[in-house]
Amino acid sequence: MRTLVSALILLALPLSATAQAPAPTESVTVTGSAYTIDLQGTRIMFPDEFYKFTGSYDLSNGKTLSLYNRGYKKFATLDGEVAHEIVATSSNSFVALDRQLKMKILIGAYGDVSGELYMVATPDHVAKGDTSERVVAFAFH
What we know:
By secondary structure, this protein is of the alpha+beta class. It has one domain (25-139). 16% of the residues lie in helices and 37% in strands. It contains 2 helices and 9 strands; from the N terminus they run αβαββββββββ. It has helices at 2-20, 47-50, and strands spanning 28-31, 55-58, 64-70, 73-78, 84-88, 93-96, 101-107, 113-121, 134-139. A 9-stranded antiparallel sheet has the order 1-9-8-7-6-5-4-3-2, with no helix packed on it. It is globular.
């Protein structure tokens, strides 16, 4: 009887493992008030602290996020488009003053980088009167 129960448990394990594997996605859209980009918790980050974050990051949607500073001001651009002035919200998180971008950047011990970018996507159907805010999330590669 123990052998039969053990065999059934062993057969069920591979099925549960494959059922839990997440499907790969390039972006996630969050609508409504479930997620918003706000300026709460901003803190001062000096240029020497911000230096390790400057540079370009490849995103899961094929675009490139670039971070740079001019004096004490910090900026983020997406594929070289409009520059958004950003402020730190923690030691590795930033938000744009215009509340269009929010990002978290994790730099590993060996220089490996991971993170996520949240940005407000303009609704395609604004003309129809839909003004719901859509926030799209992208992972760093």
